[in-house]
Amino acid sequence: MTIKNWFVRSERIKDKHGGLIKYGKYLVNMEHANHKNTESIIPVYGNIENFIRTCSNEAVSLDLENSQKKGGRPVQSYAQSFVFSLPPSVVKPTQDEWKSITSDILKELAKKLDIDINDFKGRVFANVHDQDNPHLNLVVSRVVQGKTLKALDQKGTIGVAKKAFNAASLARCGLDVSAYEPLQTNVGPHLAKWQLQQKDSEKALKEIGLKSKAFDNDIAKTKEYGRLSAMLNNQIVKWIF
Fold it and tell me: Any idea where the HTH cro/C1-type domain is (predicted)?
């Protein structure tokens, strides 16, 4: 059984400037609790402080302009996050290969969003969390050149990102998603590790429950047998005496 795409997740970063700061700190903090299995954090593109500053300035400027025109909704999310993940069993890309993969993805995103690739300059941040399943973190400003990139989180854009990641990982480091076979092929779609563990636990508990029920039935049968035996013995005693 093969898979169609490497894993890609995308979501808006909530809570405007504060949410962007919190997420940015998480991306570069090796001491974060979620990074206990991360061997290293590999820089790929941009500086997180400059990126946060640029995103915030663009969003606030657009809000100010819209307020003066009495039109347009306030910008609720300053940036969009993408996570491009590879499974544990493949050979990890090098830092240079990750940079090339990132560049290829950005080129395809620029085409989809109908913007110049140079418009991403200063409005993108990327790094890699190097662990068993290494993943590229890509954060893109939702406001570019005074315009909101409304299509950034649309389904079609996510599809382009997936295809770009597939093609780039094959071209840059020979990782062919069509040739990859998951180590576990019967786990169902989109199941996280904790979900698999939960299913295993539920299965084990169910088996324990069935065994316990069978054991209780055996005990009940034994008790019933004992009760009938006692009644029979009492009757025999009456017959004898």
Answer: 99-120
